[in-house]
Amino acid sequence: MRCLLLFLLFLLPSLHLVAAETARPKVGLVLSGGAARGLAHIGVLKALEEQGVKIDAIAGTSMGAVIGGLYASGYKVEELEKLARSIDWQQALSDAPPRKDVPFRRKQDDRDFLVKQKLSFRDDGSLGLPLGVIQGQNLALLLESLLAHTSDTRDFDKLPIPFRAVATDIASGEKVVFSRGHLPQVIRASMSIPAVFAPVELDGRLLVDGGMVDNIPLDIVRQMGVDVAIVVDIGTPLRNRKQLGTVVDVLNQSITLMTRRNSEEQLAALHRDDILIQPSLASISATDFGRAEEMMDAGYRATRILDNRFAALRPPEGSGIELAVARSPDQRTPIITAIKVENDSKVSDDVVRYYIRQTIGQPLDLGRLQTDMGTLYGLDYFDRVQYRVVHKGKDNTLVITARGRRGGTDYLRLGLNLSDDMRGDSAFNLGASYRVNGINQLGAEWLTRAQIGDVQELYSEFYQPMDVGSRYFVAPFLELGSQNIEATLDNDPIAEYRLERYGFGLNVGRQIGTSGEVRLGVGQAWGQAKVRVGDQDLPEINFNEGYYDLKYSFDTLDNVYFPHSGEDIRLTLRQFEPALGSDQRYRQWDLKLDKALSSGPDTWVLGGRYGRTLDDADVVVSSMVMGGARQLSGFRQNSLSGQNLSLMRMVYYRRLTPRAYLPLDFPLYLGGSLERGRVWNNDNEFDSGYINAASIFLGFDTPLGPLSFSYGFNTEDEKAVYLNLGQTF
């Protein structure tokens, strides 16, 4: 009897806790959608934890599904706060990987004056239009990295806190409630704003933002068996008549009308014991990701005002041990025992596998994996590249999913630049490039570039990788070109020749990571130079060339148009050799260098160019060209020519517009440049001497590409205005 009594005394506290827990009402949390405004949910969670409120179930829509899913999977409030402050939302809500992660081959595409936007074409020649402005590549990767520890949890009732997410079937308009599945993919579907984000294809459905049908999923959390619902409404308020001034305002209002209607229906179903939290977010828009601190504070304050309502919802002390264990960061880095590729693109599985550097038998390296996925996506073969970890017993398989581009992998790009010397002489160039991707499973490409105007060009190259990583390659090419070259005597131009050159050759090379490339090439060319302006009795020049060259390129710029960091180095060494069919033996080298440095909105680009022609050679045939905006400003584009040239410059610009946190970020820059350069020939009949130049410019990074207006002048009393769509430097 005494033993039984002692046992009952020992068991009594536990029975008391069970009774208290049973008496406590089961609490459900409802987190509504509202894009950036959803960061207020983090402040709400912080206040609820301070009040000791235990959440038994969570239902979320859109951004509410993001915050709710992370919290339900074990994230602490402190971790959510840190994420809200540290995530680069502009990067997360775009598709392009950081430029440093893009394969060097794709970086070369930016080197012409072509605009950044490109049109894609399918194999049958039809134009490929996307299902959304943003495919959601980076957002999907972010969710996968944050929720890697949930990969083996298909039943959302088995998460530390049971969870539901709401999406909309865009084909039928039906509400889709997820109680199981792959959590990152489900959350991504729940927040796919129609036309902005591409729909998520899942189980035969095309899914978009759940706010279209149920922005405040109170009905869903009730179905999870809760007694009391805490509802957080952060929906965007309707704008008044005066605030509807543009087509964008009207479009946003239309979306808001749809979400508010179903929201009000849910709010009308609140019970007396339910608690409604409506943070004060009137001054904050759905895209204000940069105001995370304000939104979290608004959610916190709106919750603490209701402190007296939460007393009955507090559990006894000592509960919540399982949740604390689940929130351990150690649970988020599984040991990878195998890697599997699921790929339906034009390139082979081996190509996809090559870019994944995760070591078998080591913990999942999320940082390296994010970089690898960016490099893979940058190949331009995929609609999306994602990963997941599949757990089976003690095995953790990293599965890489690469989905081929439905919109096609062949790309057309255009570009334009104009210059006028304000004396009636102007120049223009209009260019285009067409790239055929994925000719074979190693990723062969055929690039054709054409340009008309002051400088005419046709260049075509077939690029064939020799291994799955494109480390080694061969690239036969064909080129035709025409440009104006001035013949000068005693620093006075005596004629302007039109130089035409036709040639072909072969390059073999090696890529150096994602930042560099070395090419060794051999080529032949022939052509002629006829007098265009000047004494028509001057002789016509016919020539033949045979050469071999070495080219080195290194590019770590974060942005090729308005860089803020990194460097760009390009070096060409070329020798013309009679044994290869050249009329003359001579050597040339050309070095170009730019280094970008930034502090806040201010950026400096330091660099220049130095080109030399060694040995005797025909002046017209061996001349290099310079001139234009920030290349001895004041002169027209490519209006200076000589066998040797040098240029030093310092460019400064300042961003005038605040940074947006969506891909639709079109910064405006105001800047200027200081330049010093010289052009001269080896025969001493022409030497410009050192020329000082300067420019001021206004640059705008438009949806098509960078648009810059420049005014340049120099110590030779030359002045010019420039309009560039595409190339900036």
TrEMBL record:
InterPro entries: Acyl_Trfase/lysoPLipase, Bac_surfAg_D15, BamA/TamA_POTRA, NTE, PNPLA_dom. SUPFAM superfamilies: FabD/lysophospholipase-like. A motif (DGA/G) lies at residues 209-211. GO terms for cellular component: outer membrane. A motif (GXSXG) lies at residues 60-64. It comes from the Bacteria. One of its GO terms (biological process) is lipid catabolic process. Its main location: membrane. CDD domains: Pat_PNPLA6_PNPLA7_NTE1_like. GO terms for molecular function: hydrolase activity. It is found in: Membrane. Keywords: Hydrolase, Lipid degradation, Lipid metabolism, Membrane. The active site is at residues 62, 209. This is BamA/TamA family outer membrane protein. The lineage of its organism: Bacteria, Pseudomonadati, Pseudomonadota, Gammaproteobacteria, Pseudomonadales.
